[in-house]
Sequence to fold (210 residues):
Amino acid sequence: MTTNKIIQGEINKIAETHFYLRVQLEIMLKRTQITEEGKPFALGCSNYYDYWTKSLNDNFFDMGTYIRLGTSIESGLKKHYMDKKGHKNLVKLQLDPKYKMNIFQKIQSWTNDNAIELFESEFGIDLNTIETFKELQRIMLHRHLYAHNSGLINEKYIQNLKTLTGIDLMTAPEIVAHYPNEDVYYFKPLKTLNKDIEFVRKFFNVLNKI
Fold:
């Protein structure tokens, strides 16, 4: 099996979770009524779908899928690098003098020892020239927020988001009304999960041809 088929297989599993399994879960939850005994603890909801969404657990479910999508970017870049360098396993990769821990999740230009510099120096590939790479940088930025801070914004995320996308969260009324005096979850990136899955798929299809 080719490297790209392995990478696309991982992306397909994420797509299956989002486009099929999540839909089936919604259907099942809508059909499942909360018992009278359970209603006092279910935020006034009559079925488990309403409870799932009202308690924000649908967002946390999608957060897990988003983290997996970010991990597929790291894994895909790692597999592509290993394939081009002829490394058959992770032991060989770790012996590579150019390899640094977590380098394949560092795809922002402002990070040290990043994957952009690695692909440029080793293969003459400028990842920035691949059409959807900017989207991957955005996805990975959100992935770090969800994986390391459970979706709670902080100053570092706010600044990095502005640097990368031009979006200034401190001009958003729903943010400034609460932050920094309160913990604020940022779920908005989850709404583009369907498109982001396809951005990742397209990126690796293009990278495979370089």
The first helix runs from residue 3 to 31. The two ends are 18 Å apart (CA to CA). Residues 3-151+187-207 form one domain. Residues 32 and 108 are 44 Å apart (CA to CA).
